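thoughts on these tokens:
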Amino acid sequence: FYAPKDSDPAEFNLLWAQLAQGVYVEKNIRRLRKNGTEFWMRASFFPVMDEQGSLYKVTSICTDITDKMLKENKEMEAQKTVGFKNAALEHSFLVFETNEKFKIKNINSYALQDLRIQKEDYLGHHIDELVLGRLDYKHIIVQLETREIDEGTAVLKAADFGYRYVSFVIAAVKDKKGELETIFFIGTDITEYKRKEIELENEVKVLESKVQKLEAQQV
């Protein structure tokens, strides 16, 4: 076996400096087999000194801990991925967490900022208090019980006497009995897009009206 190309030479030098001083060292070491596959060892280095106090030899006892380290590395990568996803959700999407009766349990900071609302004013309240109009909650429940995911668009109230068009993905978390426990509304603010769409529709209507008047005059 041999050290990978990305190994730090300083780490190797430090090891030998410690051993030269008679210091016992125990550490995890990553190495490569001849076929290039990676493996890990838990290595114990015992320095043996001669009568003059100089390093005479080193006895090393190694244990293969490859499976353990690969598992830990995989878990760390998974945690990083979850962390990145959570960060993306926190800073890019409006997230509302409710119970199975759509009572709000949590609202993320992005939604609070976008709607200019206070979390304390809505915790424990039905999410309908934030919705202009009304969502089809029976349909949502049916979808979540069968597919565990739904989607749609809603208009949400904002504290600045405005409103926000929001495109939602709705996902469910079930308990051990398979019953709905938590519902997540994960939304994207599409207000500007909708406003431009409405403006375009109005311009088309005005243009159509002008064309109709011209046609009537020609008749």
In short: The beta strands are 25-32, 38-49, 55-64, 94-98, 104-107, 131-132, 149-157, 163-174, 180-189. The radius of gyration is 32 Å. The chain has a mean pLDDT of 85. The longest strand covers residues 38-49.
